[in-house]
Amino acid sequence: MDHVQYLAQVVHFLKNDESTHAGILKYEIVNVSDLILSLKTAGVRCSRQKLETILDDLSILRSRNSHGSNRGGRPAKESSAPAEALCQCVYILVESKAGSLKVASATYVGYTTNPEHRLRQHNGEIKGGAKKTAFGGRQWKIAAVVYGFPNKKCALQFEYALQHPSSSAFFGNTKVIKAKSAKGRLHNLALLLRRKPFNRLDLSVQVSEDWVEDAVRESLAANIPGPGPVVGPIVLCGKFPPSKLACGDPHCCCCTNPESGSSGCAAAADVDVSSTCELCGLFVKSADALKCFASCNGRTHGCNVVAHVDCMADHFLEADGAAKKEMVPTRAPCPACHRALHWSSLVKHQKKQLAPIV
């Protein structure tokens, strides 16, 4: 059986297994070993290597043994809020003396839910820094932060790949810079943003200085091994993302802009959905619904449409022209108000409703 036939059988199984399909659409990590057993029970025999290739081709988040999703060690405890209510970030540190790519600088890559708090830990201002950043009394500053990951495991996989580019399967055959210099880190960051599944997520990059922005933009423009990343604007800003993004949209002005004067995001408020699906006309329960959050911080666009997760996914894939080659949607207009939406933001918004911020 060739790759195309295996792909067709796996896709057919995934779409017809309701729980697995729902998990994939919500960016849950697929356990490859469990999926192999389920496929075998359904009469589909597929080797682990072939199955992993298929899942990667479909941009489906999967378990990767000890690489990323189950990495050793635990990040410092930074908040008691549920994981769904936090901003999942991967950051790159450089020494404070660094002012350009020409200045030799040690670097560090880590995961956090609060970049500024974590930086204070690395600089020894408060307890909880990493051993690698405590060496030689170095002082650090944040060069770049990537945020907008749908969950913690996805962010940890991105972090591990950026830490170990030469051994990470995410980079494929793409040429990486093995050196842990600032140039190497930023170059590999741009490459990773172009690799599946990260190039189909609504990720944002925030940088602290002009030279960092120039380095990332140059690498993004020069290295094109495949489709461009679905990446938000590269923002030059000294203040990094807050630890809590209320509505799940990394571009939401009332969640990320401290000058908005908002104590919370209207889009994140619990909604008692007891309506009919906009797309199929059947009853939809709150736990099974996605809602267009076109109303945010009092700026109402007149849309409060809801739809089943799978119905909205079909709409997104059809609108994006990817119905036959992808399973996880990216961007599409709302079926009612036609406002541009991103799938990962819709999913994160739903998780916020089911797990309110504390």
Structure, described:
The structure is a single chain. It is built from 12 helices and 11 strands. Mean pLDDT is 76; it is low at 66-82, 242-273 and 295-300. It folds into 3 domains: 3-57, no CATH class; 83-244, no CATH class; 266-354, Herpes Virus-1. A hairpin with a 6-residue loop joins strand 6 and strand 7. It has helices spanning 3-16, 18-25, 32-41, 48-57, 115-122, 131-134, 152-163, 182-192, 210-222, 253-256, 309-320, 343-354, and strands at residues 89-95, 107-112, 140-147, 203-207, 231-236, 274-276, 283-285, 289-291, 306-308, 331-333, 340-342. It has 358 residues and is of the alpha+beta class. The N and C termini lie far apart (51 Å).
SS elements, strand count: 11
Taken together, the total number of domains comes to 3
Round the mean pLDDT to the nearest integer and report it. 76
Major pleated sheet:
5 strands, mixed
| β-sheet strand percentage | 5-15%
What structural class do the secondary elements suggest?
A: alpha+beta
Write out the strand line-up for the largest beta sheet, numbering strands in chain order.
2-1-3-4-5
Specify the helix fraction band: 25-40%
pLDDT < 50 stretches = 66-82, 242-273, 295-300
Distance between the termini: 51 Å
